[in-house]
Amino acid sequence: MNRKLIFAVLAIFALSLFSSTGFAKDLKIALVVKNLGNGFFEASNRGAQEAAKELGGVEVIYTGPTTPTAEGQIEIIRSLIAQKVDGIIISANDPDSLVTITKRAMQRGIPVMSYDSGINSQGRIVHLAPSDSKFIGYQQVELMGQAIDYKGEFAIVSASSQATNQNEWIGFMKEALEKDAKYKDMKLVAVTYGDDQTDKSYREAQALIRKYPELKGIEAPTSVGFPASGKAVIDEGKVGSIYVTGLGLPSEVAGYVKKDVVKNFALWNPVDLGYSSVYIMKSLINKEIAGKNGDVVKAGRMGDIPVREDGLMVMGSPFVFNAENIDEWSPVF
Ligand code: RAM
Predict the structure, then answer these.
(1) Ligand 1: distance of its center to the CA of 16 in Å?
(2) Which end of the chain is less enclosed by CB atoms within 10 A, N or C?
(3) Is 133-267 a CATH 3.40.50.2300 domain?
(4) What number of other Cβ atoms are within 10 A of residue 290's Cβ?
């Protein structure tokens, strides 16, 4: 072998050594949220970035449309496929219309999972739900019951009308009202949609208060619609006669607890949700799991998360917040 050849062989050897010991390119994982400017998703991104740091060699790209539409997310996924990201985690604005594009991503070798708000199972490998949907729906009715003494009219200010997660929860809220005699004197009079926009949610809540003079409660299963509804109750002079409950960030709802507009509400930890999703996606990219029933992901400080039937994964039970614990939680998320 001449000296040049020996040199070339050595150079190739050194290069491959470097690439397997830290000079390898980072895995690019996209976190596609329903919409930007939403505190819930920003908190989930904090957890996602934390997981990326812990795992090493992972870059999380936080992205999403400005308003929560499936069209906006389809455009973003199209461009993520072109950029050849290594994995896509998405909170879906629609369970069906994203399937075609996410299937295309998977055909190109990019694993897709949903978190928070699911895509139908043909369009993703696994879905990480924050908690059992039935549990969430029934719990919301119970919290509303506690706030209005299980009596009177209440209305819902939801997120967007196509959102998978909110629609599932609302379905279970209706089921609880029908099935459980405890709620027989409570009446759901309307379901409206604030599209996870503060202004629109505020206007919807205001319209409900004006349209239903007997209204006793507003339930908002969205972190954006919840504080917006609280503000509408105050501005309409209804403190003490209309109570708001729902799913919200303690940091954004604390003020309404103090003003006696909110007695109690629930949420899971969005930081943990984003954190767990990145661990799950890394296992999918590295083919440590296939996303089948019985697979288990070792998700760092969150411990083992098993895959159930239909690729469903579930994080835990929601926390309930009230005047007693709100100050402890509002600095956290
Ligand atoms: C909003 C979004 C999200 C939901 C929370 C509770 O931020 O709609 O999907 O999980 O509220």
Answers:
(1) 44
(2) N
(3) yes
(4) 13
